[in-house]
Amino acid sequence: MRSLKGDFSHAINLLVEKLINLRMLVEATLDFPDEDIDFLAECNAYTQLDEIVRQLLNVFESAHQGNLLRDGIHVVLVGQPNVGKSSLLNRLAGEDVTIVTHIPGTTRDAIRQHIEIEGISVHVVDTAGLRETQDAVEKIGIERTWSAIEQANVLIVIIDVAQGVTEEDRKIIAELPASLPFIRVFNKIDQHQLTPRVESHDGYTDVYLSAKSGVGVNLLRQKLLDVVGWHHAGESVYLARERHLVALRKAQGHLDLAGKNTGSVELLAEELRLAQDALSMITGKFTPDDLLGEIFSRFCIGK
Predict the structure, then answer these.
(1) Which of 26, 94, 258, 276 is the most buried (most CB within 10 A)?
(2) Which alpha helices (H) appear in 228-287, and where do they start and end?
């Protein structure tokens, strides 16, 4: 209902209006240096910039939550053969959706299953085990594993707790996209009388569980939501699309650079322009002539 009433558009337009006002001050300083006015100091330009950054972060957080509600989370299970990927998918799904055997390489194709965690849609993909192989069919399955990884929001890297992190596991992790968050799951704790738990160290998030018995799987469910940034946002959620998030990220990046360019009005002006260009992906274009019109309408310049 909030989206249908245009709350997201309203929030973005308020941001753009404040950004236009700030750009007007900066451009006036550049274009009319002979005027006996320090526009930036007179109007607390950098305080305005800080406020815009704060509001943009709030909008992005609400849009991110809405994007998770709209599109769900895409989770891909990866790891060596026979570490329990298919067993974990079955456990998360609550039914036997994929074949489980002791034979490595049983899963040859990506198998998809939709589940829900606290009302959030989660699309889980079981994939072929990653290893060197001469089997032509298994090679195709491994290629599809990497294709699924490219579409994921988060990965679950499954490791046999008895073996620990092997050289093959390290190689898999090293080849994953650097920006893609992942959770290391140490599976089969039931076979070694280990306690289910969550650990965080050296930049890794580790969950110890048993896909076969289900012990510790609830810890994984909650950690999945934490890793992708979900929290109960109440009513302050906008059902934004991925392209909106991309635009907001770009604008945030340029505003961060603008805050670092306080010694150069020219660079400040350029980063503010690029930030507004990013937001224009959502709202529509705002031309230099439009900005010049704002300057002349609000200041008695050149008279």
Answers:
(1) 258
(2) 242-260, 265-283
CATH topology of domain 73-152+154-227: Rossmann fold (3.40.50)
67 vs 77 pLDDT, higher one? 77
Residue 266 pLDDT: 87
Q: Is the pLDDT of residue 213 over 50?
A: yes
Helices (H), 103-241: 136-150, 167-175, 217-227
Distance CA(173)–CA(155), nearest Å, equals: 10
Sole residue written with tokens 């994007």: 67
Question: How confident is the model at residue 241, as a pLDDT?
Answer: 75
Encode pLDDT of 163-200 as tens digits.
999 998 899 889 888 888 899 999 999 999 999 999 99
**What is the band of 274 on the pLDDT scale with cuts at 50, 70, 90?**
very high
Which tokens is 258 given? 């603008």
Fold of the 7-68+237-298 domain: Four Helix Bundle (Hemerythrin (Met), subunit A) (1.20.120)
Domain boundaries, the chain: 7-68+237-298, 73-152+154-227
